[in-house]
Design brief:
The complex is a heterodimer of chains A (327) and B (497). With 327 residues, chain A is α/β, with parallel strands linked by helices. Chain A is 44% helix and 19% strand. Chain A is built from 13 helices and 11 strands. The longest helix of chain A is centred in the C-terminal third of the chain and has 24 residues. Chain B is mainly alpha-helical and 497 residues long. Chain B has one domain. The termini of chain B are far apart. In chain B, 58% of the residues are buried. The chains are: A alpha/beta (327), B mainly alpha (497). Chains A and B meet through helix 1, helix 2, helix 3, strand 7 and helix 9 of A and helix 3, helix 6, helix 16 and helix 21 of B. Chain B: This is TctA family transporter.
């Protein structure tokens, strides 16, 4: 911890010489180091994303930011620990979509109510998923894939990173909209899903672009479509799924990552953080770093994030209903 | 570029002063955190991660890797001297290392472990350089059915080791399997035996289990006897050195262990744990005097230590050539590379050969450094045993708490290690072998997951285990092993009548 803090201090000191866009707050906030809780281990994608944002943020706020990695339960433990530490007034967090949207349905004894306990700050970035198959898969394109899957129920097996994960729910949403039944095989990481696809244990998987693209470049995988509304910058040639191969025009499934605070955080603190994060996200260098990791900078007001949470909770809630209804 | 040419190019990268110094720093740091109970490579690498922003990618990776394999050397020290393994793979080293230390031959045990570690690593490097192309296929050739069959073989083969009574050994394996069920079921997402504790949703912390069962229970057990046994006498240099018959027992078990370790290490998963248990079981089986195992057999240290060090080297193959990390530490290493804009995976050997071969060459340099560093340190480590218990034990407990907390920053785990320590003490009073519990705990969830996954993918057809050639070999080997054991039992029964 000491080392992390020291590194944060060093980063802060180096960058504090630059300018701060922060409007001076009445009570002189922040007057002590901030703690940002991340529900994933150091070195993981959500952790790297948090570091990309908090490093310039610390410089702008003039206070070091300590990343608190509290991994477990799909990111839920990070949120719980942030709420646990909120009394200090310096606890914030970054989270993926799961703990804000599907966790209330999937995690018993969640210990928090998203609507009551969380103050949305800013959407940091979004990422589509890509439908990946082995390079020698008989499915030439999205239409071909759907045709294969339609041949008989469970003709196609797909991998996900666990029941209730974004990869699983996206595949179920896709099955519903495309009118197919696929066999779900849960794994625990994209690395395992990749191995299984390349080794022909399963036929396909909805994957994070960062996890799939290098295998495409190496000629071991192909991707048949992206789940975002617009084409993905790193793979402009891959078609979006919405409106293609018989899928509805509003087909959309995105993972996201957001900055959150405990409810009760002063509104001026929330809006100050939101303003700074939007400035950081507008920086082309930051945008490029995010794209390299498979993410697209998002930004917007706290309300944008709040709306996103409500909408996605509804979308994924419907998918969960469909899964629960299965025999 | 062939493997050996690449290796030579890599040597050029490592021997740059700006890189070499980080290699030295990494292995020295790795040794020390390996010695400290519980604080392992995982915690150290996550703490070092932010610092690597300021280093070149080569220096960063070589340093972090040095911490990783350096900690394997250090891990054996606490296992031998204090019966305190930080990880399951060094748990095997306690079986014979700790009895040797108790006989006043800790120096010999440490010498054996260090030299076997070195031999194992060098063997692993040789395999990596010569066969990295072939090895990288192993990871994708193994399907769920193959993993399940392989781990069942590992469990069956190892279930009989270190056992005083076979029934007691089996009981421990089963208890381990049951404890391994705690957490979220991968297939259904159901919480099993978590009793509403979110902290348990990812299962019991492995480090907490290992430290509790071995270290904490040992501390509790020694409280009664500590004042009476007093401080061991000062060890003379002559007693640190192995006798000729000790030396004769070292090379072949180490080579066999290294071979197993190199193979299993290349498979993502728990290759190194399986290889250390399996190589121990194997040595016991081929030994002319298996009764010495568990009382301080040199082979019982040499084989597993060579195996886990060889596995630590070949574990880099799937990580670097496929981008598929075999364990959480490798996943962290992968993250470190991504921070530096290096994407490990199928493209790495072509895109960044200097990085790949620089790392491989650093293994060679690093292990040489570790041997040079550690042999003179043996005397110092042994003198640690002369620290009075009333100072040593509280210090150990503090390090255990720090170490367990460092894994995932969870206070819950500190209470868990205390509870597990008490339970472990009760088990040791009843003469149960906690190593087998640990093995069941590690392999159980993997067997379950892969077994169910294999059946899911085969749409419920159990013949998949015999149709896949790799799996079939493991199934037959398991059947053969059970048949051998049964035949032995029958023969002994007949001799009695």
């Amino acid at each position: 911890m000491t080392l992390t803090r020291r590194a944060a201090l060093m980063g802060a000191a180096a960058l504090a010489l630059g300018t701060s866009a922060l409007p001076v707050l009445a009570e002189g906030w922040p007057d002590q180091p901030l703690h940002v809780f991340v529900g994933f281990p150091a070195g993981s994608s959500p952790d790297l994303l948090a570091r990309i944002i908090t490093e310039p943020l610390a410089a702008k706020l003039g206070q070091p930011i300590v990343i608190e990695n509290k991994p477990g339960a799909g990111g839920v433990i990070g949120v719980q620990q942030m709420l646990h530490a909120k009394a200090a007034g310096t606890a914030f967090g970054t989270t993926i979509n799961g703990p804000m949207t599907t966790a209330p349905r999937l995690t018993p004894d969640l210990g928090y109510d998203v609507a009551k306990d969380i103050a949305p700050v800013a959407l940091i970035a979004t990422s589509p998923l890509v439908l990946a198959v082995a390079a020698d898969s008989p499915a030439e394109d999205l239409a071909g894939f759907i045709a294969l899957a339609k041949a008989e129920p469970e003709a196609v097996a797909y991998g996900s990173v666990g029941k209730g994960s974004g990869a699983h729910l996206t595949a179920e949403l896709f099955s519903d909209r495309a009118g197919v039944e696929m066999l779900h095989v849960p794994y625990t990481s994209y690395a395992e899903v990749t191995t299984a696809i390349i080794g022909h244990e399963i036929d396909a998987g909805f994957m994070a672009p960062s996890a799939a693209l290098q295998y495409v470049a190496a000629g071991k995988m192909r991707i048949l479509g992206v789940t975002s509304v617009k084409p993905f910058p790193q793979t402009p040639e891959v078609p979006v799924m919405a409106g293609h191969a018989g899928l509805p025009a509003d087909f959309r499934a995105e993972l996201w990552n957001a900055f959150i605070a405990p409810a009760g955080t002063p509104p001026e603190v929330v809006s100050a953080l939101n303003a700074e994060i939007n400035v950081i996200l507008a920086d082309p260098a930051v945008q490029q770093k995010l794209i390299d990791m498979g993410w697209q900078a998002a930004g917007g007001t706290p309300e944008t994030l709040a709306t996103r949470i409500t909408e996605d909770t509804a979308i994924w809630g419907a998918v969960l209903d469909r899964i629960d209804a299965k025999p | 570029m062939t493997g050996w040419e690449g290796f030579l190019h890599g040597l050029a990268t490592v021997t740059q002063p700006g890189v070499l110094v980080y290699c030295v720093f990494g292995v020295v740091l790795g040794t020390f955190v390996g010695v400290l109970p519980g604080i392992g490579a995982m915690a150290t690498i996550s703490l070092l991660l932010p610092i690597t922003y300021y280093l070149s990618p080569e220096a960063a990776l070589i340093m972090l890797a040095g911490v990783y394999y350096g900690s394997q050397y250090g891990g054996a020290v606490a296992s031998i001297l204090l019966r305190l393994p930080g990880t399951p793979q060094s748990a095997v080293t306690t079986f014979d290392g700790y009895p040797l230390a108790r006989q006043g031959r800790a120096g010999v045990a440490l010498f054996t472990s260090m030299s076997a570690s070195f031999l194992g690593s060098m063997f692993g490097i040789g395999v990596l350089v010569a066969l990295s192309g072939v090895l990288s296929h192993a990871a994708t050739a193994f399907g769920a059915a193959d993993y399940a069959a392989m781990m069942i073989l590992g469990l069956v083969a190892a279930s009989t080791i270190g056992a005083t009574a076979p029934a007691k050994g089996l009981a421990m394996v089963v208890l381990g399997l049951i404890l391994g069920c705690i957490g979220t079921d991968v297939n259904s997402g159901t919480q099993r035996f978590t009793f509403g504790q979110t902290e348990l949703s990812d299962g019991i912390n492995l480090v907490a289990l290992a430290m509790g069962l071995f270290g904490v229970s040992e501390v509790i057990g020694n409280i009664r006897t500590a004042e009476r046994t007093g401080v061991p006498p000062k060890v003379r240099l002559r007693e640190l050195l192995p006798r000729r018959e000790d030396l004769a027992r070292l090379p072949f078990p180490a080579l066999r262990g290294a071979t197993m370790g190199s193979f299993f290490g290349a498979l993502p998963g728990t290759g190194s744990t399986i290889s250390s248990f399996l190589s121990y079981a194997f040595e016991r089986r081929v030994s002319r005097s298996p009764e010495r195992f568990g009382t301080g057999a040199i082979e019982g240290i040499a084989a597993p230590e060579a195996a886990n060090n060889a596995a630590a080297i070949t574990a880099f193959v799937p990580t670097l050539t496929l981008g598929i990390p075999g364990d959480p530490i490798m996943a962290l290493m992968l993250g470190a590379l991504v921070i530096h804009g290096v994407q490990p995976g199928p493209m790495m050997l072509e895109a960044r050969p200097e990085m790949f071969w620089g790392l491989v060459a650093s293994f060679g340099i690093g292990n040489l450094l570790l041997l040079i560093l550690n042999l003179p340190l043996i005397g110092i480590w042994v003198s640690m045993l002369r620290i009075p218990f009333r100072w040593l034990y509280p210090a150990i407990l503090i390090f255990v708490c720090l170490g367990v907390y460092s894994v995932r920053a969870s206070v819950f785990d500190i209470f868990a290690v205390a509870g597990i320590g008490l339970a472990g003490y009760a088990l040791s009073l009843a003469r149960f072998n906690p190593g087998l519990l640990l093995l069941g705990f590690v392999l159980g969830p993997l067997i379950e997951t892969n077994l169910r996954r294999a059946l899911l993918v085969s749409r419920g057809d159990p013949m998949v285990f015999l149709e896949r050639p790799i799996s079939a070999v493991f199934v037959l080997a398991t059947a053969g092993l059970i048949a051998l054991s049964l035949a032995g039992v029958l023969r002994r029964a007949r001799q009695k009548t």
